[in-house]
Design a protein that fits this description.
Strands 3-2-1-4-5-6-9 form a seven-stranded parallel sheet, sandwiched between helices. A two-stranded parallel sheet has the order 7-8. It is globular, with a radius of gyration of 17 Å. Helix content is 37%, strand content 17%. Helix 4 links the parallel strand 5 and strand 6 (179-186). It is α/β, with parallel strands linked by helices.
Length: 251
């Protein structure tokens, strides 16, 4: 599925790395950015070799710093030696649906490691590459649940609130290196992975919390993401762009 938005001239020829690129939002982001003329590096635990919208595939586990560092060094080499990196989209994430007191320690750790350590591991590994390119942009994928949590998603919501604060801190820290750091915070987005849930009774209940009364389509994240990445928006850093159908504004 490709984007319907007009090509952003500022992204043409830019090299952008997307984590969690094998499915869902990550897979869609790769296709959309490829349609904008960007060169796409896809990173996932699965082998992405041959994926149609990935120019360079990296197989790594974002929760494991050794896996990330080894894969980045093998694929990209030393900073600036093989790729002039412009952007990093920290998209990889997982959710567990359970009450706070019912979440197992194992599930809690999986969510924390993927949603938080995944970002720090990737940021540590890629900032030297961005610096060697003269700067660039990092977009962390947060969530409306980091601002307005619901029941049975406490751990996930807590990680996404942390992603928002990490984004703001990172923006302050990396400004001297000409690296902008922003967050995209989607509401509920209908994908092939969650369609069965969102199209059922649970989805009907969720829609009542959204002023627009519906879930987002993947394409409705395209323009906001392109906005955050576009070098023309050079004064935009430390921002959290909500695309939630008004959910965060509701009671």
């Amino acid at each position: 599925m490709t984007s319907a938005i007009s090509p952003a001239a500022g992204l043409a020829g830019k090299t952008i790395l997307v984590t969690g690129a094998s499915s869902g939002l990550g897979q869609h982001f790769c296709a959309m950015l490829k349609a904008q003329g960007a060169r796409i590096i896809g990173l996932a635990r699965r082998d992405l070799a041959g994926a149609p919208n990935v120019d360079l595939a990296i197989q790594a586990d974002v929760t494991d710093p050794q896996s990330v560092n080894a894969a980045i060094e093998k694929t990209l080499g030393s900073p600036g030696s093989k790729e002039t990196l412009y952007g990093l989209i920290n998209n990889a994430g997982i959710a567990i649906t359970a009450g706070l007191h019912e979440t197992s320690p194992e599930d809690e750790q999986r969510v924390l490691l993927t949603n938080l350590s995944g970002i720090t591991n990737m940021t540590r590994a890629l900032v030297p590459h961005l610096k060697s390119s003269g700067g660039g942009v990092i977009v962390n994928i947060a969530s409306v649940l980091g601002i307005r949590p619901l029941k049975k998603v406490a751990i996930y919501s807590a990680t996404k609130a942390a992603v928002i604060q990490m984004t703001r801190s990172g923006a302050i820290e990396l400004t001297r290196d000409n690296i902008r750091v922003n967050a995209l915070a989607p509401g509920y987005v209908r994908t092939n992975l969650n369609a069965e849930l969102l199209d059922g009774p649970a989805g009907d209940a969720l829609k009542k919390k959204i002023p627009l009364g519906r879930f987002a389509q993947l394409q409705e994240l395209d323009a906001p993401l392109a906005c955050l990445l576009d070098p023309a928006n050079s004064y935009m850093t430390g921002s959290v762009l909500l695309v939630d159908g008004g959910m965060s504004a509701g009671l």
